[in-house]
């Protein structure tokens, strides 16, 4: 039972480089989310998606783009990485709250990104 | 804006003692509240979820209570063990369909259980 899987788990980038983080879930969840976690700042929502083909901005969306072409996958892209984007990134998913589920969140193991 | 606070930021207890972790929130119009555990270098693991209509939820040695009117939730861990050492976070989901993407997290309480 894989749950939520993130790749890659570690990555080092130089300033200005681009990359994509992939999140895959096998629980048939409608909702998917990308968070970043930084010391002293806690968990902050970057972008989220309420279904295939739809995305929305969270609390800190600048410098990131996302896509949800398939229900099970949610991609987070950095077009031009900056040192301020050094962080641990977490993907999460949930059923639609109030419908088939409670909105309980399930997290991946995280992707640690360093931008030099 | 919903503010979620967890005090204390760190806690150390001897093995066998009961743990009491606090979570406060400023807006009582919540849909549910979720408690997580995070081990160093790992993701968040869901422990308990309490719906706004519930007063408490239990799983094994864990019990979480919710008092919406006072904006508080408490996580109790009975008979703590060294394996309970981790950071515990609470997260509040606001009511209303336009807010379902937006959980507000507390900054967590780091717990150390000493043998």
Can you describe this structure?
The complex is a heterodimer of chains A (116) and B (115). Chain A has strands at 4-7, 10-13, 19-25, 31-38, 42-51, 54-57, 65-67, 73-78, 87-94, 106-107, 111-115. Chain A has 116 residues and is mostly beta strands. Chain B is mainly β. In chain B, the strands form 2 sheets. In chain B, strands 2, 4, 5, 9, 10 and 11 form a 6-stranded mixed β-sheet that branches. Chain B has a 5-stranded antiparallel β-sheet with strand order 1-3-8-7-6, with no helix packed on it. Helices cover 0% and strands 57% of the residues of chain B.
Structural class by secondary-structure content of chain A = mainly beta
Helix content of chain A: under 10%
Please provide the count of β strands of chain B.
Answer: 11
Report the principal-axis shape of chain B: globular
Give the integer mean of the pLDDT values of chain A.
92
Distance between the termini of chain A: 36 Å
Order of helices and strands of chain B: EEEEEEEEEEE
Give the key terms:
heterodimer, A: about 120 residues, seven-stranded mixed sheet, four-stranded antiparallel sheet, B: about 120 residues, mainly beta, six-stranded mixed sheet, 11 strands, about 0% helix, about 55% strand
Topology:
The complex is a heterodimer of chains A (116) and B (115).
Chain A: E1 4-7, E2 10-13, E3 19-25, E4 31-38, E5 42-51, E6 54-57, E7 65-67, E8 73-78, E9 87-94, E10 106-107, E11 111-115
Parallel strand pairs in A: 2-11
Antiparallel strand pairs in A: 1-3, 3-8, 4-5, 4-9, 5-6, 7-8, 9-10, 9-11
Chain B: E1 4-5, E2 10-14, E3 19-25, E4 30-38, E5 44-51, E6 56-59, E7 62-67, E8 72-77, E9 86-94, E10 103-105, E11 109-114
Parallel strand pairs in B: 2-11
Antiparallel strand pairs in B: 1-3, 3-8, 4-5, 4-9, 6-7, 7-8, 9-10, 9-11
């Amino acid at each position: 039972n894989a749950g939520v899987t993130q790749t890659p788990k570690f990555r080092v980038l130089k300033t200005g480089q681009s990359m994509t983080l992939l999140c895959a879930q096998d629980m048939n969840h409608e909702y998917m989310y990308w968070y970043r976690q930084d010391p002293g700042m806690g968990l902050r929502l970057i972008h989220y998606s309420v279904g295939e083909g739809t995305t929305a901005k969270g609390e800190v969306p600048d410098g990131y783009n996302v896509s949800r072409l398939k229900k099970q996958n949610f991609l987070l892209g950095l077009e031009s990485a900056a040192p301020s984007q050094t962080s641990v990134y977490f993907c999460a998913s949930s059923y639609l709250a109030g419908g088939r589920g409670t909105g309980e969140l399930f997290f991946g193991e995280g992707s640690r990104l360093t931008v030099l | 804006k919903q503010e979620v606070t967890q005090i204390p930021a760190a806690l150390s207890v001897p093995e066998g003692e009961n743990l009491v972790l606090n979570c406060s929130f400023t807006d009582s119009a919540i849909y549910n509240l979720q408690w997580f555990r995070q081990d160093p270098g790992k993701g968040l693991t869901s422990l308990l979820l309490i719906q706004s209509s519930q007063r408490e939820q239990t799983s094994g040695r864990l019990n979480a209570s919710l008092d919406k009117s006072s904006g508080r939730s408490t996580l109790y861990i009975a008979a703590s063990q060294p394996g309970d050492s981790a950071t515990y976070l609470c997260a509040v989901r606001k009511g209303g369909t336009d807010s379902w993407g937006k959980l507000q997290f507390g900054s967590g309480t780091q717990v150390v259980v000493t043998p």
